[in-house]
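User: Quick sanity check before I run a bigger batch. Here is a single chain. Can you write out its predicted 3D structure?
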Amino acid sequence: MLLLAGVFLASGTAKLRDPAGMVVLLRQAVSPTVPAFALTRALAVVEVALGLVLLSGVASRPAAVLSGAVLVVFTVALRVAARRAPEAAASCSCFGGSGGAPAGRAAARNALLLVAAAVVAVRAPGAPWDLAADELAGAACVAVGLPCAWLLAAALASVGGGAAGATGGTAGR
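Assistant: Done. Predicted structure follows.
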């Protein structure tokens, strides 16, 4: 639950602070006349609201179900955007200025988050402060550790891809 809350809070806050990448993506992948700035702001507000509801534990099950639905929509939209406007999709700033994972990695990330949403929807824990100290510490470690592991894997993948490109890809011949 903390992981989902953290992801939605970070993503929504990043879009509120730096909407430019998402605005460009919407205009290139959907239509140049789409009200991209307003849609980006609305999406950011929804993400922040979902994060806050998940964090509060007040309506964990409905928030987790809605989070799962949002993740499915995001994944489908990103795949469509990657076909229509690959450059914009690659730099969508979905998590702010630092944000654009390739569509395949973003889909894998969203699939993992969808599993987390399903677990929360089925288990529906209460508020994080209702947990025992050791459970809360474990949940916080997972919530912080998984995004760090994801960023490390993404960095290693880009370094590995860059090394193959630098050698001309002859290492496997």
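Confidence is low (pLDDT under 50) at residues 162-173.

User: Great, the batch can go ahead then.
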